[in-house]
Design brief:
alpha/beta, FAD/NAD(P)-binding domain, 2 domains, seven-stranded mixed sheet, five-stranded parallel sheet, 23% helix
């Protein structure tokens, strides 16, 4: 059974930065990622607010460069889904669908997944007009009319991106005011391709083999109408990817890991949480990377005390 100093679960900004710092500190480091390196950032088109890139950078590009850098200094990246964590003496046992590993410390950096509306037709038509990733699927809707649900930064960022392809983007929001930052609100309201429907929820996705229309309900009048559309993009937040954690460390009511704000250590010694998996984390790449650094340094100090 392979044994490591640091095991990192998740290859987003937090996980890849933790891998970089842990490897550079000469700790034997493994990183587990079930899909591919980059996490949510790999699904983002333009990153305009990451320091050092005044002209912006694409999400896939920065994810690829971060992965290269972590591997350069010795981080092993395994495409395996972690299923369970256990304590074994003064080590931790990690079980994936392929093998078992021992490690002195763990960095939880598995992030969060897009939240679904959980309405009729949504799951059945996912990939057939229903999407949670504008960068992945936007190009399929060139010359089409589409709908975006949400009122936060993600909804507006992705809605603006989708105007590159769609002839019209209708943003449906359950309230009469947006939660997004002022600059994004200004951009969206000034974009001639974007229209808004307020105080409204989507109750059903309809279509034969592909999205053709939505059942929408006005929350003030309770009127239900059919709204024709070629695509349906949902950006209403994320849920933590923490099912493998179970009760191994303390989670909040929403499933996010509770961690010390200075060391990022969880309720169990030697296990740290970084990035969007952590309770009250700022959902930004730059802070995720900072937390990855902090978690790796805290793991280093933990190992030094363990062996000291």
């Amino acid at each position: 059974m392979e044994e490591y100093d640091v095991a990192i679960i998740g290859a987003g900004g937090a996980g890849l930065t933790a891998g970089l710092y842990a490897s550079r500190a000469n700790m034997k480091t493994v990183l587990f990622e079930r899909i591919g390196a980059g996490g949510q950032i790999a699904l983002t088109d333009d990153v305009e607010n990451y320091p050092g890139f005044p002209e912006g950078v694409t999400g896939p590009e920065i994810a690829e460069r971060m992965e290269e850098q972590a591997k350069k200094y010795g981080t092993e990246i395994r495409t395996e889904e972690v299923q369970e964590l256990k304590e074994q003496g003064n080590r931790y046992l990690i079980k994936s669908e392929k093998a078992e590993y021992l490690t002195k410390t763990i960095v939880l950096a598995s992030g969060a997944s897009p939240r679904m509306l959980k309405i009729p037709g949504e799951q059945e038509l996912t990939g057939k007009g229903v999407s949670y990733c504008a960068t992945c699927d936007g190009a399929f809707f060139k010359g089409r009319e589409i709908v975006v649900v949400g009122g936060g930064d993600s909804a507006l960022q992705e809605g603006l991106f989708l105007t590159r392809f769609a002839t019209k983007v209708t943003i449906i929001h359950r309230r009469d005011a947006l939660r997004a930052s002022a600059i994004l609100q200004d951009r969206a309201k000034e974009n001639e391709k974007i229209e808004f429907i307020w105080d409204t929820v989507v109750e059903k996705v309809e279509g034969e083999g592909k999205v053709q229309s939505l059942k929408i309900k006005n929350l003030k009048t309770e009127e239900i109408t059919d709204f024709k559309t070629d695509g349906f993009f949902v950006f209403i937040g994320h849920d933590p990817s923490s099912s493998y954690i179970n009760d191994f460390v303390q989670l909040d009511d929403h499933g996010y890991a509770i961690a010390d704000l200075v060391t990022l250590e969880t309720s169990r010694k030697g296990i740290f949480a970084a990035g969007e998996i952590r309770q009250n984390a700022t959902k930004q790449l730059v802070t995720a990377c900072g937390e990855g650094c902090t978690a790796a340094l805290s793991a280093q100090h933990y190992i030094e005390d363990l062996e000291g």
